[in-house]
């Protein structure tokens, strides 16, 4: 009998796109079936803190808090290259130092960068889908938009600051902005963990190589919140060749993110991303 492995991901287009290569049966694990759960990213961050899922999408900024219980996966990653979340406000609004802002969650990457850049701001957390209206209705002075919201927002709003610009200023430039990835429960036996990670790598690769077909299927089934042109543009940003397998540059970016969090007192320990991966070389050693 096949084991059931829970795979939790966010409902935004890039996560759905990468996961559905498995859902549609294009890729499968050797001895397990994947059961998917979709929830907003902060819900997933909180669930990972509680150890609820076997494999879960997370904000990279969360990872140092769960490193002892979850291994960092090398695939299904989202980085910004000259773009990312946006701090927006009404065009007729001038922000004070202690402005009230809506963020999508305490453990999101954008929250970490925001807190470093705006230490006096008053933060409230809400579902990312509610942030735009909260700014428009004056419930908050500003808000950080994420996911597809960065592409289409009300014309009464304007960008106060790109999170990409904050990242560049803090990191020194030349590194992509680490946003989200996936992690796997450490209690899963190593040979299974390697198989599951390889399956996910293959799924992201297959989805990327068959992007047009998969995107059409998702749109026809009503599984995506946006229209075809917006989906295409969004996948260009966050579900591409750079999403399949972490690169050396991406490892450096993750290490810089963790360094910034440690330097500003958000993490107890300074960690390096490569120290927390699944040791996939184990399978090679077993076969020799």
From TrEMBL:
GO terms, biological process: menaquinone biosynthetic process
Protein name: 1,4-dihydroxy-6-naphtoate synthase
Superkingdom field: Bacteria
Species name: Malaciobacter halophilus
The reaction(s) this protein catalyses: cyclic dehypoxanthinylfutalosinate = 1,4-dihydroxy-6-naphthoate + dihydroxyacetone
Keywords: Ligase, Lyase, Menaquinone biosynthesis
Job description of the protein: Catalyzes the conversion of cyclic dehypoxanthine futalosine (cyclic DHFL) into 1,4-dihydroxy-6-naphthoate, a step in the biosynthesis of menaquinone (MK, vitamin K2).
PANTHER family, per database record: 1,4-DIHYDROXY-6-NAPHTOATE SYNTHASE
Catalytic machinery residues: 147 (proton acceptor)
Record EC number: 4.1.99.29
Stated family: Belongs to the MqnA/MqnD family. MqnD subfamily.
Top-level EC class: lyase
Pathway(s) where this gene product acts: Quinol/quinone metabolism; menaquinone biosynthesis
InterPro entries assigned to the protein according to its UniProt record, in alphabetical order: Menaquinone_biosynth, MqnD
Gene3D superfamilies linked: Periplasmic binding protein-like II
Entry's Gene Ontology molecular function annotations: carbon-carbon lyase activity; ligase activity
SUPFAM superfamilies, per the entry: Periplasmic binding protein-like II
């Amino acid at each position: 009998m096949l084991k059931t492995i829970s795979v939790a991901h966010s409902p935004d287009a890039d996560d759905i796109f990468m996961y559905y290569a498995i859902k549609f049966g294009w890729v499968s694990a050797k001895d397990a079936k994947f059961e998917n759960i979709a929830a907003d990213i902060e819900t997933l961050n909180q669930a990972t803190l509680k150890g609820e899922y076997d494999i879960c999408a997370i904000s990279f900024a969360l990872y140092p808090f769960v490193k002892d219980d979850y291994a960092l996966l090398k695939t299904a990653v989202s980085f910004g290259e000259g773009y990312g979340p946006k701090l927006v406000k009404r065009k007729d609004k001038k922000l004070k130092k202690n402005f009230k802002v809506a963020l999508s969650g305490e453990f999101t990457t954008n929250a970490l960068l925001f807190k470093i850049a705006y230490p006096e701001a008053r933060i409230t957390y809400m579902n990312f889908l509610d942030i735009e209206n909260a700014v428009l209705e004056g419930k908050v002075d500003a808000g950080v938009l994420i996911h597809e919201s960065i592409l289409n927002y009300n014309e009464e709003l304007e960008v106060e600051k790109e999170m990409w610009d904050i990242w560049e200023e803090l990191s020194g430039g030349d590194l992509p902005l680490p946003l989200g990835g996936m992690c796997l429960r450490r209690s899963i036996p190593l040979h299974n963990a390697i198989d599951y990670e390889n399956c996910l790598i293959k799924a992201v690769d297959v989805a990327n190589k068959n992007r047009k077909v998969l995107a059409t299927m998702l749109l026809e089934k009503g599984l995506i919140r946006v229209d075809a042109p917006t989906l295409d543009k969004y996948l260009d940003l966050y579900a591409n060749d750079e999403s399949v397998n972490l690169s050396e540059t991406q490892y450096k970016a993750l290490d810089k993110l963790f360094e910034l969090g440690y330097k500003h007192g958000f993490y107890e320990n300074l960690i390096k991303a490569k120290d927390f991966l699944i040791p996939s070389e184990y399978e090679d050693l077993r076969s020799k």
